[in-house]
Every structure is written in C-alpha cells, then in structure tokens.
C-alpha cells in the first residue's frame, strides 16, 4: 500500500475529557476517503486503541482538514507517537473552531469538512469511522496538496 499515493489530512476533535474545559486533539491520516455523495459520507480508519480512536469514540462530531504542501511540518508533528500534548501543538497551528463540531479547522488547508459520526466498524486492528459531512469550507487561495507516497511526503509534479 506504500505504492498508493494519497493525500494527507489532519483529523481533529474537541476532546471533552481532556482537562476541565476539554482540549483539541488531532491525528495525521491518509486512510481517509469519500464514501457517499447522497448523503455525503466520508470515512477515516483509525488504529484501535490509539488516542484518536478513544477521542472519536467519545466525540460525536469531528473534522478533517485536507492539508496543503505548506503543512508538511504540521503533518509530521501530529503523527508523532507519544507526543506530549495536542493542546500545546495547536497553540502553534493557526486554526478556528468549527461551528458545527467544535473541532479545530486548520487555516490554510485546501478544504475542511465537519462531520458527525454515523457508524463505527471494527476492522482488524483499526476502526472505520464513517461520518456524515455537516459543513465544508474551501480555500480558493490554497496551494498544492500534501501527498504521501512510499513512506515520504511528496509534492505533485
Ligand atoms: C503520513 C501518515 C499517515 C497516517 N495515516 C494514519 C491513518 O490513516 N490512520 C491512523 O490510525 N494512523 C495514521 N498514521 C499514524 C498516526 O498519525 C500516529 O500513529 C498517531 O498520531 C500517533 O499517536 P498515538 O499513537 O498517540 O495515537 C499516519 C501517520 C503518517 C505519518
């Protein structure tokens, strides 16, 4: 599967269980795809038992930011296992909080999608989280997509 080139997204949610007021959580993912147009459904596959799997089990709504080439460093940071705190990482990432989900929407992303979990399917060592798309934003000024292929971040062309 390393030979399948893919776009990179940051899956985010507001984790109510992190501290008294909750905190933002994020995870870099490539296993993200469009499932249905009517209704609009997308899917992300998260490793069972990972922090984001726990967060998405609790949070009914979440978001995905489709990352641009300029966001390679951000993708790397949110893929580090055992990182200390997503709350601290988000301090350095320009973002807004989605009106429908409360999840961070990364500024400068190619597009953002706010979702509500429709179903969760256990699949081997991952959980498939299928979300109904509640809202989207498109950044007309955004640059090129961040790609991942054969174990490395790439650019188009
Ligand atoms: C390019 C890239 C794509 C990734 N895609 C996924 C994915 O689709 N699903 C997933 O569960 N983890 C994926 N990961 C791994 C998670 O980003 C990483 O395991 C997680 O952030 C580590 O935190 P945790 O172990 O504390 O959960 C990917 C990592 C990278 C670098």
UniProtKB/TrEMBL annotation:
Gene3D superfamilies on file: Electron Transport, Fmn-binding Protein, Chain A
Keyword Phosphoprotein (UniProt): no
SMART domains given in the database record: Flavin_Reduct
Keyword tags: Oxidoreductase
InterPro entries: Flavin_Rdtase-like_dom, NADH-dep_flavin_reductase, Split_barrel_FMN-bd
Protein's UniProt keywords contain Oxidoreductase: yes
Residue intervals of the Flavin reductase like domain: 1-155
A biological process term (GO) from this entry: pyrimidine nucleobase catabolic process
GO molecular-function term, one example from the UniProt record: riboflavin reductase (NADPH) activity
The name this protein goes by in its record: Flavin reductase
Species of provenance: Streptomyces mimosae
């Amino acid at each position: 599967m390393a030979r399948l080139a893919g776009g990179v997204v940051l899956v985010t949610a507001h984790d109510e269980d992190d501290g008294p007021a909750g905190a933002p959580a994020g995870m870099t993912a490539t296993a993200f795809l469009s499932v249905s147009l009517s209704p609009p459904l997308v899917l992300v596959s998260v490793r069972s038992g990972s922090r984001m799997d726990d967060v998405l089990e609790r949070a009914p709504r979440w978001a995905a930011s489709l990352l641009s080439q300029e966001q390679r460093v951000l993708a790397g940071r949110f893929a580090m296992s055992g990182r200390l705190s997503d709350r601290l990482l988000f301090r350095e990432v320009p973002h807004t909080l989605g009106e429908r989900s409360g999840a961070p929407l990364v500024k400068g992303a190619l597009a953002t999608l706010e979702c509500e979990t429709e179903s969760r399917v256990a699949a081997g060592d991952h959980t498939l989280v299928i979300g109904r798309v509640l809202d989207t934003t498109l950044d007309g000024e955004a640059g090129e997509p961040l790609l991942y292929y054969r174990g490395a971040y790439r650019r188009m062309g």
